[in-house]
Amino acid sequence: MLFKQQVLLRQKLFVLGSLAIGSLLYLVARVGSLDRLQPLCPIDGRFGPRSQDEIPLRALQFKRGLLHEFRKGNATKEQIRLHNLVQQLPKAIIIGVRKGGTRALLEMLNLHPAVVKASQEIHFFDNDENYAKGIEWYRKKMPFSYPHQITIEKSPAYFITEEVPERIYKMNSSIKLLIIVREPTTRAISDYTQVLEGKERKNKTYYKFEKLAIDPNTCEVNTKYKAVRTSIYTKHLERWLKYFPIEQFHIVDGDRLITEPLPELQMVEKFLNLPPRISQYNLYFNATRGFYCLRFNIVFNKCLAGSKGRIHPEVDTSVITKLRKFFHPFNQKFYQITGRTFNWP
Ligand code: A3P
């Protein structure tokens, strides 16, 4: 009898304990998400009268919820219609530069409640076959969002593809364009590393970076090598400037996004006329990865895939010096045009 009572008592204590722990976890999670939502009112005032471009802050809170459920395939078409979810053309595009940190930038901006990212690279403007499918095809590739949110896509090939500026201009001449750059030689080596890894995966051999980057006949920098050409940022930007004024571009420092992402993201928020909502809470340094990772709330966080942040092969220092010298005048021009100076050698 006494034993039975003890068992019952233990069961009751277990249930009560579970309830208490559950409530505690719920509260902690709530506080975590409230932490992100808290600065609603002060920001509202700071932004002054609302312009067409601004986002009503009420709408920001709904980002996760139905939208998230829909992405997981749990929301019905009727719910989408009722909640006024739409597939919108992007208001901003990360046009490049390949290996500059385009994925990190997109994922980090997606922390903002008013931003909805297109997860895949769409390659609409740089791929003739896709472009021929028309703008509706492009729109249908966009994620569902609330009308007051903005969609952002990234396809780094846009930056270097001849036809793209005119095509984007035809879609939206006032679109905002984001370019993330890294020190050009490092970017070129990163570019090479990605190709090298692809070759290795297919059990193929590949040239050394030095062999590709330096012309063996002239011993000069090989400007025919794509990884070198892509890093001549000013040449590509000049083509874009035939269609868009410089004010429509924002340059992100990809090297700083690695070491100190928040200030870079805050500048982008400003450029996009978004209220500042990404905070240090959303970014934490993961020592194992050696990079900042993303924290959406107390339960959900993620790091970028392992393909981001590869170890670069060692490159002959004389080749690095040669490349840096080669890029130097182009970099100066790039600083001049963009009004943003970097400490590149
Ligand atoms: P490396 O692999 O050379 O280190 P992209 O997304 O345009 O391909 O750029 C990839 C680069 O993003 C990586 O280049 C990496 O250095 C950089 N990066 C910036 N922030 C990162 C982050 N938080 N996690 C992983 N990689 C990041």
Automatic annotation (TrEMBL):
This is Sulfotransferase. The keyword ATP-binding does not apply. The chain crosses the membrane at residues 12-29. One of its GO terms (biological process) is heparan sulfate proteoglycan biosynthetic process. Belongs to the sulfotransferase 1 family. One of its GO terms (cellular component) is Golgi membrane. The active site is at K99. It catalyses: alpha-D-glucosaminyl-[heparan sulfate](n) + 3'-phosphoadenylyl sulfate = 3-sulfo-alpha-D-glucosaminyl-[heparan sulfate](n) + adenosine 3',5'-bisphosphate + H(+). Its EC number is 2.8.2.-. Keywords: Disulfide bond, Glycoprotein, Golgi apparatus, Membrane, Signal-anchor, Transferase, Transmembrane, Transmembrane helix. The keyword Translocase does not apply. Its main location: Golgi. One of its GO terms (molecular function) is [heparan sulfate]-glucosamine 3-sulfotransferase activity. Residues 90-334 form the Sulfotransferase domain. Disulfide bonds join C293-C303. 3'-phosphoadenylyl sulfate binds at K99, G100, G101, T102, R103, R182, S190, Y292, K308, G309, R310, I311, H312. Gene3D superfamilies: P-loop containing nucleotide triphosphate hydrolases (3.40.50.300). It is a single-pass type II membrane protein. It is found in: Golgi apparatus membrane.
